Amino acid sequence: MATQTSDLLAVAAPPTVAVVRGIADDQLDLPTPCREYAVRDLLNHLFEVVVNFQDLAAKRGVAWADKPDHLTDGWRDRFEAETRRLVDAWSDPSTLEGVSPGMGMPQTTVGGMALLDLTVHGWDLAVATGQPYRPAPEAMAALHELVGQLGPQARRMGVFAEPVPADADLPELHRLLCDTGRDPAWSPTA
After folding, report:
1. Cα 149 to Cα 156: distance, rounded to the nearest angstrom
2. Distance CA 135, CA 170 (A)
3. Among the four 12, 98, 176, 184, which has the fewest Cβ within 10 Å?
4. Domains of the chain, first to last
């Protein structure tokens, strides 16, 4: 079976998995567009997202306070495997029904949050480590809609920064980044 969420996760995952695979060990301490996170920290956060959102698909609670170091032997392969499990976890139509007991939001929104993290943090990691990144074009409309819906609350909670002004002729990814408070021109040396 498949759902729209699992289909979008399935096309969004490969570009981010490729970026994760391309990160060298000597790049783990580089800065990222997420001011509070070096590459290592952001990788661990994205690992947490990929693992915890599998439980959220099953409507189980998660422990966000646990901060294990996922960057142990074989972490690149494990990230890819966990990402596949994430896609599989959201493929059952029942995962999209109702409200998430752990997040207090509609399950469809929760699934979209996993898609957003995979996409935006894929870009964060790519730009921090000097890699190309091309998000799944099929996911962009859903992501713009989700950011529009979550934006005010996410800004109040400090999840998004204030939007960066964006021209309408910017690429879709750049407009999405601006809406989450990121500067698409960010570089580690700026």
Report:
1. 13
2. 15
3. 98
4. 4-137 (1.20.120.450)
